[in-house]
């Protein structure tokens, strides 16, 4: 309840108000609210740099949770202020062994990760392991985030061979997210890992083949619904095109002749442009009718048929 006295200062980002409160009651900076948060922790989480400066000048910085909290929210400015005030402050949460780099990766904060990698004090944690033995690279691969994977792999001190508690290197985490194999991110992460560790390229290629087989098998299971979707949409478009081309063939440009001996014949029948129109219109109508007919006879559970069907109908349409 005492902590709530300083809440308005946070809300209005008033460092002057915070300064007055801290001069009168400095111990408020360490008081916890009902959720166990102190004012300085809230300043970090809410990105209130002005208030944070006042609090840091009032108390001694003791810890890891502040830098880790900043990493969780991706507040680079807060982290800079923390490092300026206390360059040697720890950057690891002792409970789970999560460093600020682990937290930034797990929270998917690429800008904060870039800040850590560029900091001589903080980038030492690039190969540190958490309670489960995972390095930040393990987590980045697990998150299937190519931007963060690339940032970590480009660091000069990265070690891709570090094993976690299960004895697995970071690239083996790709097996755990094989259901993401359809995504561009997964494929990009695979390419980045292969480039960073050419000696293990064979196992990555085997994984890639396994993922491809898994995706194909998954597609086979969903083939009935996929075929219905494709044939339903395509048949609708094909029917509309066939209807329009059929109507165009009987709506002759220039009309019909009423002269003796040529009654009913198109007036422009001898013109090349008109003849070309008739040929292309007839071809379009026939192609659309063929596509519509194929949609009717489509086999619902044949993956190969669906693949060829899509290719063939695209060309006809």
How would the blueprint of this fold be written?
Layout: H1 7-11, H2 15-24, H3 39-45, H4 49-58, H5 64-73, H6 76-85, E1 92-93, E2 98-99, H7 100-106, H8 110-117, H9 136-143, H10 146-153, H11 173-176, H12 184-196, H13 201-221, H14 223-250, H15 272-297, H16 303-316
Antiparallel strand pairs: 1-2
Helix pairs in contact: 2-4, 3-4, 3-5, 4-6, 5-6, 5-7, 7-8, 7-9, 8-10, 9-10, 10-12, 14-15, 14-16
Subcellular location: Membrane
Keywords: ANK repeat, Membrane, Repeat, Transmembrane, Transmembrane helix
Organism: Paspalum notatum var. saurae
How would you describe the overall organization of this protein?
The chain is mainly alpha-helical and 317 residues long. It folds into two domains: 60-220, Ankyrin repeat-containing domain (Serine Threonine Protein Phosphatase 5, Tetratricopeptide repeat, Alpha Horseshoe); 222-316. The protein contains 16 helices and two strands. The chain has helices at 7-11, 15-24, 39-45, 49-58, 64-73, 76-85, 100-106, 110-117, 136-143, 146-153, 173-176, 184-196, 201-221, 223-250, 272-297, 303-316; strands at 92-93, 98-99. Strands 1-2 form a two-stranded antiparallel ribbon. The radius of gyration is 33 Å and the shape is elongated. 27% of the residues are buried. Mean pLDDT is 73; it is low at 9-13 and 60-64.
Give the CATH level 1 class of the largest domain.
Answer: Mainly Alpha
Number of domains: 2
Write the CATH fold name of the largest domain. Serine Threonine Protein Phosphatase 5, Tetratricopeptide repeat
Structural class: mainly alpha
Mean pLDDT: 73
Q: Spell out the helices and strands N to C.
A: HHHHHHEEHHHHHHHHHH
Distance between the termini: 70 Å
CATH superfamily of the largest domain: Ankyrin repeat-containing domain
What strand order characterises the main sheet?
Answer: 1-2
Low-confidence stretches: 9-13, 60-64
């Amino acid at each position: 309840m005492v902590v709530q006295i300083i809440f308005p200062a946070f809300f209005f980002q008033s460092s002057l108000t915070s300064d007055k409160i801290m001069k009168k009651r400095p111990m408020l900076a360490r008081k916890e609210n009902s959720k166990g948060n102190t004012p300085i922790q809230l300043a970090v989480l809410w990105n209130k740099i002005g208030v944070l400066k006042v609090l840091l000048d009032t108390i001694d910085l003791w810890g890891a949770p502040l830098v880790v909290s900043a990493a969780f929210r991706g507040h680079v400015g807060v982290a800079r202020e923390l490092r300026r005030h206390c360059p040697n402050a720890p950057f690891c949460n002792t409970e789970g062994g999560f460093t600020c780099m682990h937290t930034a990766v797990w929270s998917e904060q690429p800008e904060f990760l870039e800040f850590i990698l560029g900091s001589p004090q903080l980038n030492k944690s690039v190969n540190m392991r958490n309670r489960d033995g995972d390095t930040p690279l393990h987590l980045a691969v697990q998150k299937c985030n190519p931007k963060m994977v690339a940032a970590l792999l480009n660091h000069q001190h990265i070690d891709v061979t570090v094993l976690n508690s299960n004895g697995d290197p970071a690239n083996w985490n790709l097996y755990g997210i094989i259901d993401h194999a359809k995504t561009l991110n997964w494929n990009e992460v695979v390419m980045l890992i292969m480039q960073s560790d050419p000696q293990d390229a064979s196992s990555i290629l085997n994984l890639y083949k396994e993922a491809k087989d898994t995706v194909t098998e998954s597609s086979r299971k969903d083939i009935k619904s996929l075929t219905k979707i494709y044939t339903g949409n395509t048949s609708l478009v094909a029917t509309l095109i066939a209807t329009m081309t059929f109507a165009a063939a009987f709506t002759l440009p220039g009309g019909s002749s009423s002269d003796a001996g040529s009654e009913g014949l198109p007036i422009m029948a001898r013109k090349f442009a008109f003849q070309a129109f008739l040929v292309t219109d007839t071809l379009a109508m026939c192609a659309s009718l063929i596509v519509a007919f194929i949609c009717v006879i489509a086999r619902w559970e044949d993956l190969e048929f669906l693949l060829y069907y899509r290719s063939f109908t695209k060309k006809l349409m």
